[in-house]
């Protein structure tokens, strides 16, 4: 029999490489009785990832006592267990990826869609301060700094799907309410509350991808997922400009709410849970129920998952989950560096978005609706670079893995940042220089497309690196990487 000490010091590597090959049930002598039955949701602290193990204290069990009892450890049914999200069919994996990407797309659309209608909104509410006008747009993004801090960890306690959909319902309610506001105070407050719920896909989506995609096949999925939050600010101003020109500003909120309600319905029916500790806890709960109905099957046995400690309380689980993002940020300098860099790029992108209407309305004399169409140049750069990078990201990873004796490293996701850091300033220079020289409008659009390409290459590399590094706790890792974005903006 395997000692309980070995179990306590287990690792989550098998989650990233596939299901464990160990038997589903293993008898373990535990030195101290369980103080309470396993809580409703397991504690993922029991098997921390390699890279953050120093930030999490693993319980140690010393000695043997007369009070020891048999424990059944619930695990996957071998390496090919279809219940393990990493063994899902490609159809199931892409369904989860597409739905999470849709959630991630609609939230940034809401963040920027109101910008072209801000003048009409200011006129109706009597807002004369340029700061307050800008606040009606930016307050939504400011909520992104706070929502991931608790939504990401909550998904590691109650599951990805449940937290993601609950947060989206919260966003949907307040975003719909924005269309019925009667004064500027209500609008600003409702926008902030909607932003809290809208931040959930940004924090949790990376965790979903880490749960169901293996390392060597994760690049294409991240390419789609990371494209969504960057296309949102592109589509938003285009749609918002036409709505502002042909209807009331209130339809900016109502239209996004209608689309989000449709995505919510898809999520309810097709987004399955992917978090391994929760899935195994549900399996353990079914086994407990079976044994309670027939105690003679296994008398005096406790049933717990491979992620559970023998002595734990739900209060400790909850506290650790909420503190984990801050520990990651404090103990992992790379998280600080990448978070600051992503915040800089994200802030630069939003600043750049605000200059596009001024270029084509002021310099080229185009109408609001026509000027908004130039955002599609940014979309071309984002989409084109994303699809090209999706084809090469996994190939680059496998190439360096082979050179390293078959051992992969998260750093093999970063080469795409090299062209990204070149395209971004190059695009900014071309856009500014050609607009000042009043060249043909296609020239600034080429620069805009390069800005989009540079942005998405940086984002995809960093997000995939974080998912590969923190795997089971990818949601907590993403919450800290994303945290500084709104503060820079």
Account of the protein in words:
The chain has 489 residues and is mainly α. It contains 20 helices and three strands. Helices cover 67% and strands 3% of the residues. A three-stranded mixed β-sheet has the order 1-2-3. Helix 7 (160-178) packs antiparallel against helix 8. The longest helix has 31 residues, at 333-363. It starts with a helix and ends with a helix. It is a multi-pass membrane protein. Residues 1-68 are annotated as: Disordered. Residues 96-489 form the Major facilitator superfamily (MFS) profile domain. One of its GO terms (molecular function) is transmembrane transporter activity.
What is the CATH fold-level name of the largest domain? Answer: Growth Hormone, Chain: A
Number of strands: 3
Average pLDDT, rounded to a whole number, is 78
- Bin the strand percentage: under 5%
**What is the CATH homologous superfamily assignment of the largest domain?**
MFS general substrate transporter like domains
CATH architecture tag of the largest domain:
Up-down Bundle
| Main sheet specs | 3 strands, mixed
Report low-confidence residues grouped into runs of 5 or more.
1-68
């Amino acid at each position: 029999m395997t000692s309980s000490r070995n179990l306590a010091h287990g690792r989550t590597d098998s989650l990233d490489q596939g299901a464990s090959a160990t038997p589903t049930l293993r008898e373990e002598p535990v030195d101290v009785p369980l103080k309470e039955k396993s809580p409703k949701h397991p504690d993922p602290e029991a098997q921390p990832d390699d890279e953050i193990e120093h930030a999490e204290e693993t319980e140690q069990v010393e000695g043997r006592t007369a009070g020891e009892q048999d424990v059944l450890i619930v695990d996957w049914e071998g390496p090919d267990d279809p219940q393990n999200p990493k063994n899902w069919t490609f159809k199931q994996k892409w369904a989860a990826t597409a739905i999470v990407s849709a959630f991630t797309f609609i939230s940034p659309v809401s963040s920027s869609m109101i910008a072209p209608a801000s003048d009409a909104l200011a006129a109706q509410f009597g807002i004369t301060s340029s700061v307050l006008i800008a606040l009606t747009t930016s307050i939504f993004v400011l909520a992104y700094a706070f929502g991931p801090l608790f939504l990401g960890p909550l998904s590691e306690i109650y599951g990805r799907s449940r937290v993601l959909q609950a947060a989206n319902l919260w966003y949907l309610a307040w975003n719909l309410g924005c269309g019925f506001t009667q004064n500027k105070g209500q609008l600003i407050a409702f926008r902030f509350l909607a932003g809290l719920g809208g931040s959930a896909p940004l924090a949790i989506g990376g965790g979903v991808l880490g749960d169901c995609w293996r390392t060597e096949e994760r690049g294409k999925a991240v390419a789609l997922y990371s494209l969504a939050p960057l296309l949102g600010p592109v589509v938003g101003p285009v749609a918002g400009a036409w709505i502002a020109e042909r209807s009331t500003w209130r339809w900016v909120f109502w239209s996004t709410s209608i689309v989000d309600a449709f995505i919510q319905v898809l999520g309810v029916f097709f987004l399955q849970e992917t978090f391994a500790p929760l899935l195994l806890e549900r399996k353990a709960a079914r086994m407990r129920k079976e044994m309670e109905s027939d105690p003679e099957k296994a008398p005096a046995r406790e049933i717990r998952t491979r992620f559970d400690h023998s002595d734990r309380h739900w209060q400790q689980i909850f506290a650790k989950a909420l503190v984990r993002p801050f520990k990651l940020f404090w103990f992992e300098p790379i998280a600080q560096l990448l978070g600051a860099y992503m915040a800089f790029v994200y802030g630069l992108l939003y600043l750049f978005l605000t200059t596009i209407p001024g270029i084509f309305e002021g310099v080229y004399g185009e109408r609001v609706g026509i000027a908004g169409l130039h955002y599609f140049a940014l979309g071309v750069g984002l989409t084109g670079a994303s699809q090209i990078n999706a084809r090469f990201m996994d190939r680059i990873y496998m190439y360096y893995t082979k050179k390293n004796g078959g051992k992969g490293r998260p750093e093999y996701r970063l080469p795409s940042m090299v062209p990204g850091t070149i395209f971004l300033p190059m695009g900014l220079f071309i856009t500014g220089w050609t607009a000042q020289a009043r060249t043909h409008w296609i020239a600034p659009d080429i620069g805009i497309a390069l800005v989009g390409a540079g942005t998405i290459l940086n984002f995809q590399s960093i997000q995939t690196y974080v998912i590969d590094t923190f795997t089971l706790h990818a949601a907590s890792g993403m919450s800290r990487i994303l945290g500084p974005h709104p503060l820079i903006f």
